[in-house]
């Protein structure tokens, strides 16, 4: 499940759970208490992936990045903050996600997108390249548009969702002993 590429192997901090059916390749760092669920594919081959603490990437998601080129000298890494829930079958490509974000099932977030803190991206949403999603809002549609501000319950749920997955991954780690 963890594979080297050009001599670089993924780095897992304390308390990380990676399902045995997932494949993580190359320059990937995963922060404390995060979890990678079944059939996730993450390739840190032409740039790097950094995943924060208490973040969960759910079943069937694809994580990748953009190679450096003459037009884009640094390429685009994939950076995911703390307390982020990445739903089932999400595709994240060369983008930056802040903290306390929920990415709904089947969403696609493309190159050079910045998602500020405290955002919900609705299921099936498409975030085209070079967009910024502002903190405190719900985004839905294809292409996604700002739908409305998040209410207090939704803002609180962002941390609850992340914490629920910390608890679940701890149960899975117990089973593995």
UniProtKB/TrEMBL annotation:
Domain of life: Bacteria
InterPro entries recorded: LbH_gamma_CA-like, Transf_Hexapept/Carb_Anhydrase, Trimer_LpxA-like_sf
SUPFAM superfamilies referenced in this protein's UniProt entry, alphabetically: Trimeric LpxA-like enzymes (SSF51161)
Transmembrane segments: none
Protein name: Protein YrdA
Species name: Pseudoalteromonas holothuriae
Taxonomic lineage of the native organism: Bacteria, Pseudomonadati, Pseudomonadota, Gammaproteobacteria, Alteromonadales
């Amino acid at each position: 499940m963890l594979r080297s590429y050009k001599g670089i192997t993924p780095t897992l901090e304390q308390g990380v759970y990676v399902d045995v059916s997932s494949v993580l390749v190359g320059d990937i760092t995963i922060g404390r208490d995060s979890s990678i669920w079944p059939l996730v594919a993450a390739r840190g081959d032409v740039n790097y992936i950094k995943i924060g603490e208490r973040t969960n990437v759910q079943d069937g998601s694809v994580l990748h990045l953009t190679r450096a080129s003459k037009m884009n000298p640094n390429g685009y890494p994939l950076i995911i903050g703390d307390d982020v829930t990445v739903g089932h079958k999400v595709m994240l490509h060369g983008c930056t996600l802040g903290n306390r974000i929920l990415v709904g099932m089947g969403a696609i977030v493309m190159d050079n997108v910045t998602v500020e803190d405290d955002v919900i991206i609705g299921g099936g949403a498409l975030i085209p390249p070079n967009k910024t999603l502002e903190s405190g809002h719900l985004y839905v549609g294809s292409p996604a548009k700002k739908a409305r501000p998040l209410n207090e319950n939704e803002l609180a749920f962002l941390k609850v969702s992340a914490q629920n997955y910390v608890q679940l991954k701890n149960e899975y780690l117990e089973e593995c002993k």
